Structures are given as C-alpha cells and as structure tokens.
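Issue: ligand-bound run for zinc ion - logging full I/O for the record.

Environment: standard queue, default settings, no custom constraints.

Inputs:
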Amino acid sequence: MTLVKEETFQQQLVAIRRHLHTHPELSYEEVETTASIRTWLTDAEIRIANYPLRTGVVAEVGGINGGPVIAIRADIDALPIHEETGLPFASRFPGKMHACGHDFHTAAILGTAFLLKEKEKELLGTVRFIFQPAEEKAKGALQIIASGALEDVEAIFGMHNKPDLPVGTVGIKSGAIMAAADGFIVEVEGRGSHAAVPEAGIDPIVISAHIVTALQSIVSRNVSALESAVVSVTRLNSGTAWNVIPEKALFDGTLRTFDERVRSRVRQRFEKIVHSVADAFEAKAKVSWIEGPHPVVNDSEWAALASRTAESVGLRVIEPLPSPAGEDFAFYLKKTPGLFVFFGTEGTKEWHHPAFDVDERALSLSASFFAALALDALKRLISKSQPIAKAGDEQ
Ligand SMILES: [Zn+2]
Ligand SMILES: [Zn+2]
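Outputs:
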C-alpha cells in the first residue's frame, strides 16, 4: 500500500489500521503484517534495525548525534476469533480477527514513527520502534528481548486501547496496571471402579469437586481485602460413562494477581490445597504451571512525566482501574523502567469480543501523544538530574 501524499495524517492511519484489520494474522504467523509494516516504514524513509526476528519489526528514528535510546512498542498479532462486526473492512480470513485492537496499536505507533521522522534532527537520542509479534501468546516480548533489541534501551513505553475510556482520554497509573496471568493444570489420580462399588475405587471427580471448592477460599481467606486476586477453574474433564468411576480427573484455569508477593502466596496456597485435599482422600495430585507474564508495573516517574505530556497535547488524563488481563509488556518492564498506558477508544465491546471495534479518532491522538512523550522522555534522560514535578503540582 502506498500512502498518497494528499491524505491527511489521520486518514493515513485509518487506511493502515483498516488494511491490518482486513488481513489479521495469528501469533507467530505475522508474515504479511511484518512485510506491510516494513513497507510503510521504508516508504517513510525510516531505517529498519537489524535484529534476528522471524516476524515483527524493529525500526529507529534519531540518534544522529548519539544520545540515549528509548523504545515504543506496538503488538501486531490477531486472535483466533471469527469476526462479527459487519464492518466493510472486516477480516477476510475466517476465524481470525484483530479483536484486541493490535491493528490500532500498530497503526498508531507507525504514526508516531512518521511524526518523529519529520523531527529527526531535533531528537536528542534514538527512538526505537518495536512492532512485536505474539503478544496473545504472552511470549513475543521474550523474543524481542532475546533478539537484543532492548539492550541499550533506557525507557520503554507502550499502550493498550481501552474501550471503556472515551476518545481523548488516556489512563495513566503508576504501579500495577495489568495482572500477572498464570495458568494451571491439575491432574487428580484416583482409582477406577464400577460406579456401583465406589468403595473399591478412589473417585477423582468427588475429590476434584472438593479441591475446586476449597480453592475458592484462597481469595476470600488468604488475600487481604485491600489487595486482589482471581482464582478461576475454567475446565474440568473426567470420565467416559455413567456407570464407571474414572481413574483420573483433570482441571485447569488461571490465577490473576497484581503483586509478586500476593502472586507467590496465592500459588503457595494453591499447591497446598490441591495436594492436601487429594491426600485426605487418598488420591495423588500433580500441579503444572503455565508461567504467565508478571504484573505490568509502571514506573512512577515516567507516569508523572507522561501525565504532563498528555495534558500538554490536550488529552484528559485519568487514573484507570487496573485490568486483570495479562500483558507480556511486563517482561520489558522487568528489564527496564517504563510505562504502559490505556488509551481511550470508546467501544461497546470488550477486548476479545467478536464484535470488538475501536473509535478510529483515537489513532492520530495516540500517535501524537507518543511522539510528544518520546521528545519529553529523551529530554528527561538528558537532564536526569532535574527532578520531575508530579502532574498537577502547579495547580
Ligand atoms: Zn488480547
Ligand atoms: Zn491486546
């Protein structure tokens, strides 16, 4: 796709977003998406950095006279969901959809790159743009880190669109903004028997029912009322017939926490309950963890600076409630300080809904916000000795 010169900036971003929306690709399969992003960057004469990635793109603007390096990240993958928006630019690929708005993130951050390219000579350092694959698998960030693209980065910024925030608002919060999202699989091994002779067996269904019920006590009895956690069992499988007590039961689900201390306490209680209840009923149990990303924990100084930047470009800053969803941006923040914000996109459907959509007016707003943030962040890094005033200090 070639960008026509007369198009306004907003129209360019809408065209890019719609192109991506029509052609969604799942995690690790973002081959055409990668090619399109490279083309748009190359057309804008933005240099593509050479990191070993199969999908995803890293590009850079600035750095002509050295200076610090900051990164801005967009995720590029779609979901295995069949789109039901009825939009004229809906997905052309059955069963695949940009239902999390990563098309919006990609288009907006490309817009930021275009804006900063025009100001390249003014940049006090390098802005590295990370178009990351496989966020929905919570692993793409690890690929980017493994590629070395974060090595010299002093601060990293990113966003998620937020349907419940109006266009023109940005949710900025220091501390945890998204949850650690751990998965678990529990296997309960009893002993099979005839359903009419339960005393000859060890019934894994009854035992699993006790475990699942007891697990609900973790949030109510082991987590402070001032903190939060979620323990959800989402699937339970066992048995083959109405008259057979099976040998095994299997259940899985997820834990969500916003604090590493709560996370480890919840996991510790989880293991204890599973093993102790199984033991009480003379069964064996095995817990396997699907390690999710950490909580997304924002740096307070970058949050303060970004709030000021947002206000300076006419956005309304609100402090959002954290989301119990997971985000692999957390892996970057473990490595380098930074900020993950929620950008208002005013939709009626939540993330991952087949009729999810964003209000495209937020495209140029978010592109401009991140461009201004990049300029302010580089300035801040250059004059690190000056303390940042908290947003609202002057009022
Ligand atoms: Zn998602
Ligand atoms: Zn997402």
